[in-house]
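On to my pick:
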Amino acid sequence: MQRAWVRGAARDLLAHRGQGRVTVGARQPPLVHELAFAVDEALGNPPRLLEPVALPEGGPEALNSLMVELFAGRVDTLIITAWNPAWTSAVDSGFTRYLERAPFRLYHGLHEDETAALCPTFVPATHPFESWRDGRAPDGTASVLQPLIAPLFPGAVPEVELLAVFAGLESQSPYELLQSLWRERSGAPPDFEARWETWLSDGVIPGTRAPPARAVLDEAAVVQDALDVAGLNPLRIVQDAPDLRAEARASHLTEAPQGLELSLVLDSRLYDGRFAGNAWLQELPDPVTKLTWDNAALLSPATARAQGLEKGDVARIEVLGQAVEVPVLVLPGQPDDTVTLALGHGRERVGPVGQGVGVNAYALRFRDLPWGGGTPTLTRTGRHHALALTQEHWSMEGRQLALQLTGAAFRAKPQTLQPLQEDGERIYPPASAPLVSERHQWAMAIDLHRCTGCSACMVACQAENNVPVVGRDGVLKSREMHWLRIDRYFLGDPDAPGFITQPVACVHCEAAPCEYVCPVNATVHSDEGLNQMVYNRCIGTRYCSNNCPYKVRRFNYLEYQQREPLTRLRQNPDVTVRSRGVMEKCTYCVQRIERARAVARSAHRDVREGEVRTACQQACPTEAITFGDLRAPESRVRREHEDPRHYKLLNTLGTRPRTVHLVRLKNPAPKGGA
């Protein structure tokens, strides 16, 4: 299957010389990047302008050098400011063993984590929002970072202040040290103070971006690297170079890897584990697996059948004498004979939220195999572990939910979507005639063509609206409280499926089924088109949830909100903190609407286009979510409501949703490539 795809992709690239691009992942070895660049050059694709990436000094090589010095006893004072190297270092690096050879060990960090446990001296660090510092963007542009608040904890100190003590500069504050550094770097101009104030105001320092470099192909070096990796004798190049290239190609085509292969990946939510103490991220469903509060060994359906494993079965994965036991999750689209395991879970010292959640995949990470690649053995243990998934089903079962069409099919038959656009028969009468009203008529549009499923909107909604977490047990009972969810569906062949995501929140139906069954009038319709929840009327019958076809209403079963002073700081004071026993749902961020209305009223004007942005809209990196006033002739949301690609979710029910989705257009290659 993979070879067929490669042949098809090769034919496509050859048929479109100079119009394509071959890219590879950042985890791939240098040779793969070299070969991709060589293919681009051979096809005459546009030249690459490489922006030098600003990376901190050090890395694995620096850690190896430190290990040598620790082993030799040449380190008497060790100051650690990097995040938790005892946790992230390779299992065979020896870091935790050799660290004790330094008589004085100081760890500077935000939390007392696994590295702090190995260091007699721990100094709490200030958060980046609490201290002066500088940084560089990936393209080299420098920025001066200002503190937003004073440190919450009196004993916390910035990194530069700690290091200044050892450098004999303790008499200067972090602000003075930073200003002196940039005065020196800028050549100490007479107008430095004015420049400094401008830099602080603009946020970036002009003229610091690194110029892009034109990469030049060294074909001989690429061939040499390929031969070295293939294990061929470089001395034969002079004798028979063309045959050697053919031999190398043949060896890569015929020597397929035997057995399973392990792939270690950074977790999409916890990254390398540094965010394991964040309950919002622990309960955020993985964009692909929809797994919360855990990590799992991902297997393809074919590999799971061959290994006799099913979802939730606990398997033992062993690589080079190191082993972990982890539950299995069967995932369509996962490559066959590959076991994928996310790093960052299984923390031992992280606080009550992330303590012991998941399995520590760092136990399988080696210096020579930082991202897996070894040949693991997979053994069934006979135990079972319940996985807290927010979406169990894979398919839309023939329903018109998350729609995807080819560009050609949509252009040929644009009327395909008409049944999902027109107002048809409805179960309930509409609450009002909204566009006749003189008030604003708020609405939303979500473009599936732009949505990547990254879930930034979900976290933004949770932070904005004080949405609580329910914990692993709550998710197992389907009691998660997210006001906005992202549905994920696989399309086509389960072994090589397509993939589509669809954000779904309360769609604010104009003929809302929830409004007609509430016995206490807690869910009502506003004259601006919002389906509103009156919390102090709700008595928790849950009739509205039963009558909602979109299943976007959440019942607050327990007292999830914490009342400690520190945790209350994360709550938005503009939004009510709900107690148990009430129904919750998306409000179109009505608090932001009211804030914009108050600002406009004080200026004796109306609310302007774009002045109200919902939290999910503001956080979306691809601008897939649009919100605004349908009555405004030039509003973007009105244009998208009139776009030929728009459709109303479950339109056959006649609910007349105020949130519409725009169909995704794709141009997949025919089967077998073209």
In short: The chain has 20 helices and 27 strands.
